[in-house]
Each structure stands twice: as structure tokens, then as C-alpha cells.
Specification:
By secondary structure, this protein is of the alpha/beta class. Helices cover 65% and strands 7% of the residues. It is elongated, with a radius of gyration of 27 Å. The two termini are 32 Å apart.
Length: 354
């Protein structure tokens, strides 16, 4: 037990002394939680600026209530000339420009920003349809009512925090395991441990316990910051299942770290390999941005990565109001990743650098 405690203490000290690992494990995800949470919380979606060229009667003659509704979607500003307006749209200073030619409303947009272009076209297509219906005097047969499925108090931080927590846990476990193995091999610590009367299982158990403890500390810090009033994270459903999810995710990424630590020859190479694995995986798994609109092949690829299951599992139990059973499949898949990759890491493990 004394040997186990000494090894665990050495690993904890090594984690906190490794500034690179500490930065990517704690500071980097926390930075994203605060920045993304502060940017999106309470502000809602930014309005698209639309430049009005000349007199656009179909907009200017709107009743006050209808104009207020349009102003909630777009910000309409006047433009001195059509050339000035088109220049502003090309430069990205405005989302679109509009002018009226008789009964025709002409909308100019830039394909350089497809999201804004699609947004503003959708808004004005609906606007013109509604004007045509009112002008015809025929009441519409069908109406559309949109309702949010979540609580009205739900904030964007609900979807930012789980992804950042998953990323932070993944980076912490991978960095910690990989850099410990590489550093200890470079300093011949592994060789001395091999010759010492210490069982290999004791070394592995100490690494696992330290990684799980660090992951729980990360979870407590991330959630503690996210629930602060200026960010406003509200836990729902079986949020407590985030704990076993984080533990299973830690084991999966610990196995990746062991594999990296077994094949990398230097600390620099190991750090680069860890970043090469975890950063693209975070984007492909939806930890930073949703991938629902990504190409089909990219979505299929994301299903082969463990971080996606951790991200989706965290969102299900923390913000989507799902029950505890929603976490069972992600946990099983993450543990499967851990078993397979640990077996592979064991086969390629080296005690010495040679």
C-alpha cells in the first residue's frame, strides 16, 4: 500500500508540474466554457444587417406590429447608393442589400457567407409570402406554430459545457498517461521500476486511480464554473450519471494515452501525437460545434471515435433531461474502447527507449 501511495503521489506531482498537460487539461477547456458561455448566454442570435437602397415601400409601409417583427430578425439600415450597398455586402460589412423595382423586391447577398445568405433569403422569402397573403385578402389555410421542446430558461451554455467537459477529460487522461510513460522511460524510471520488487499491476493501478481522481476534479471545476450566474448552466435529468460517464471516458482516453506513450519516443513527439489525436477528434465528435449538418461520411467517421459517445452521453443526462439508462450504452462503448486499446497498448509497450 505504501508503494501504491508513493507512486500515486509521484504521478499527481508529475501532472501538476507538467504545465502543458495542466494547460490543456484544465485551463484550455475552462477558457472555452467561459468564452462560449459568455458569448452565447443571454444575447441570443445576432441580427443580420440589411441595407435598404432607395424607397422600399413594401417594407417602409408595414404596420408597426409587422415592422417590429421584421426588426427582430434583421437590422435595416439605409444606404447612399446601390454601389455602396453592394460593396458593403461583398466586404462582409452587411449581410444583404435590398431595393424595390415596381412589384419586385430584389435582395443582394454574398456567397462568401453561405449561412448569412441562407438566413436572410429565408427571412425575406417568408416576409414576401406573408405580404402576398395579406394583400390578396384571402386568409391562410394553414398556420405554423413553433415551440421549443426544452424549458424556456434553457441557455446555450447547456450545450457548450458538456462538450468542453468531455474534451477536458479526454485531454487530461490522454496527456497524463502518455507523458508519464514517455518521461519515465526517458529518465529510466520505468527500468528501475521493472527491476524493483514492485508488481506491474501496482504501477498500472496507481495510474488509473490518479487519472480517475483528476477527471473527477476536472468535472467538479467545470460544472462549478458553468453553474455560476453569469453562465447559468442548469443541470437536469439524471445529471449524476455524468460521474460514471466521465469515469468510463477517462478509462477510454487513458488507454489511448498508454498507446501513445508506448509508441512515441520523445516527449515532444508524444505531445504532438496527443494533440493530433484529441483536437481533430473534438471537432469530429461535436465537442466544439454540432456536426449534424456535416457530410454523411464525416458523421459515420465520428461514430468510430470515443469522444462522440462521451459528448452525447453527457448532453443526454446533463441537459436533455434523459433518464439514467441513456448513459448505459455510451458507458458500455467507452469501456469497450478502453479494453481494446489497452490490450493493443500492452502488446507494443516498451520498458526501455532502445
Amino acid at each position: 500500500m505504501r508503494v501504491f501511495a508513493a507512486l500515486a503521489l509521484a504521478m499527481v506531482k508529475g501532472f501538476f508540474r507538467d504545465r502543458l498537460s495542466l494547460f490543456f487539461s484544465i485551463v484550455f477547456p475552462l477558457f472555452f466554457i467561459i468564452v462560449f458561455g459568455a458569448v452565447f448566454t443571454g444575447g441570443g442570435a445576432a441580427r443580420v444587417t440589411v441595407l435598404e437602397v432607395g424607397n422600399v415601400a413594401v417594407v417602409d409601409a408595414l404596420p408597426a406590429s409587422a415592422r417590429t417583427g421584421l426588426d427582430e430578425a434583421v437590422e435595416i439600415r439605409g444606404a447612399a447608393s446601390i454601389d455602396d450597398a453592394l460593396t458593403a455586402v461583398r466586404r462582409g460589412d452587411a449581410g444583404a442589400a435590398m431595393e424595390q423595382r415596381g412589384q419586385e423586391l430584389v435582395l443582394y447577398f454574398s456567397s462568401a457567407d453561405p449561412v448569412t445568405a441562407a438566413t436572410v433569403q429565408g427571412i425575406f422569402a417568408g416576409f414576401v409570402d406573408q405580404v402576398n397573403i395579406v394583400t390578396s385578402g384571402i386568409p391562410p389555410t394553414y398556420t405554423l406554430t413553433s415551440r421549443q421542446v426544452e424549458d424556456d430558461a434553457l441557455q446555450p451554455i447547456q450545450f457548450v459545457a458538456p462538450g468542453m467537459i468531455a474534451y477536458g477529460v479526454a485531454v487530461g487522461a490522454t496527456f497524463g498517461a502518455a507523458m508519464m510513460l514517455i518521461t519515465w522511460r526517458e529518465k529510466r524510471v520505468l527500468r528501475r521500476l521493472r527491476l524493483a520488487p514492485i508488481r506491474t499491476s501496482t504501477v498500472v493501478a496507481a495510474r488509473v486511480v490518479v487519472s480517475l481522481t483528476v477527471a473527477l476534479v476536472q468535472l467538479a471545476i467545470y460544472v462549478g464554473v458553468s453553474v455560476l450566474p453569469f453562465l447559468g448552466l442548469r443541470l437536469s435529468g439524471a445529471w449524476y450519471m455524468a460521474v460514471p460517464l466521465v469515469l468510463a471516458g477517462t478509462l477510454a482516453f487513458l488507454s489511448i494515452g498508454l498507446l501513445v506513450g508506448a509508441v512515441a519516443k520523445t516527449s515532444e513527439g508524444g505531445a504532438g501525437l496527443v494533440n493530433l489525436i484529441t483536437l481533430p477528434m473534438a471537432f469530429l465528435s461535436g465537442a466544439f460545434l454540432p456536426i449534424d449538418t456535416a457530410p454523411g461520411w464525416l458523421t459515420v467517421l465520428s461514430k468510430a471515435l470515443p469522444m462522440g459517445y462521451l459528448v452525447e452521453g453527457m448532453k443526454d443526462v446533463m441537459v436533455r433531461g434523459e433518464g439514467p439508462t441513456a448513459a448505459l450504452l455510451p458507458i458500455a462503448i467507452l469501456l469497450g474502447f478502453a479494453a481494446v486499446l489497452t490490450a493493443l497498448a500492452t502488446r507494443v509497450f516498451r520498458w526501455d527507449a532502445a
